[in-house]
Design a protein that fits this description.
heterodimer; A: 82 residues; Arc Repressor Mutant, subunit A; 0% strand; B: 202 residues; Rna Polymerase Sigma Factor, Chain: A
């Protein structure tokens, strides 16, 4: 492990999310120039998040939608009339 | 006086619901059911559990909507209720305690081969088979995350809540959100990369 790796490795998600101040960002970017492992880490994390997002679509089954509405109608229909 | 944080459309629907409109209730459900259901499914891994979470969330939301002071967005408030529903469901199932994820195991050592193979998501419909397999790999990886890490990952990266919003929803510090999110991402990257390399997806 290279010098500063531990400290920078802990902050890689914050770096990715733009949550670090400009000085800390510059420090990490300097570290990337001498540490391909940390650079690779940030790139692979970025790809992982992107992949999880793209694959996250789920379809709500029609019968589940209907059951939810029936339940809400039964619970609130009597107290809520237009 | 507190400022209204809900979006104008939600503010209007909430007022209409409070005045007795069932149509407003229906519209609120329409706006948020897909996201709440998806969150429930990502948290619990089963359709039936996701349906239970969605039902509990909306039931409690409409029960207490008259007291909702709109100091947060409606979406955030609904996710707070949904999160509580997920935690309650987990307690009922008497699951194992959360396993901690240590950062040490992810830090590359000198000489380690640290090439991670993260596949791309194809938008090509002819790749349906491949996409289904890859989705299984991803869903299994998310399910194998310990509950407290999965909560943070789903809220931050899947639902797009900010660090502060996630901390507010979960009632934890922003530092805990950051720490858990970083470990969750590293865990998922390793899990997905390993499954991919081992031939989980051809």
């Amino acid at each position: 492990m290279k010098k500063n790796c531990r400290k920078d490795y802990e902050r890689l998600s914050e770096y990715l999310d733009g949550e670090l101040d400009p000085d800390a960002c510059r420090e990490i970017e300097r570290h990337f120039r001498e540490c391909p492992e940390c650079r690779e880490c940030v790139e692979s994390m970025k790809k992982t998040i992107q992949l999880c997002k793209e694959a996250s679509t789920e379809e709500v089954p029609t019968d589940a939608r209907e059951r939810l509405r029936s339940m809400l109608q039964a619970c609130f229909g009597s107290t809520h009339t237009e | 006086m507190n400022e209204i944080a809900t979006e104008p459309i939600d503010h209007r629907l909430i007022s209409e619901f409070k005045a007795g409109s069932m149509e407003a209730m229906e519209k609120i459900v329409e706006r948020y059911e897909d996201r709440i259901f998806t969150f429930g499914l990502k948290m619990c891994g089963h359709l039936q559990d996701a349906e239970d979470i969605a039902q509990e969330t909306f039931l409690n939301a409409f029960k207490y909507l008259k007291d909702f002071r709109e100091e947060t967005k409606l979406k955030n408030w609904l996710f707070k209720i949904a999160t509580t529903a997920c935690i309650r469901k987990r307690r009922k199932k008497k699951c194992e305690p959360d396993r901690e994820i240590s950062l040490e195991s992810f830090i590359p050592q000198n000489g380690d081969d640290v090439k991670y193979e993260i596949p791309d998501w194809s938008e090509d419909p002819s790749d349906n088979m491949l996409r289904a397999e890859l989705k299984d790999v991803i869903d299994n990886a998310i399910q194998s995350l310990s509950h407290k890490y999965r909560l943070v990952f789903n809220l931050r990266d899947m639902e797009g809540f900010s660090t502060q919003e996630t901390a507010d929803i979960l009632g934890i510090s922003t530092q805990s959100v950051k720490t858990r999110l970083h470990r969750a991402r590293l865990f998922l990257r390793d899990k997905i990369s390993t499954s991919y390399k081992e031939g989980g997806v051809q």
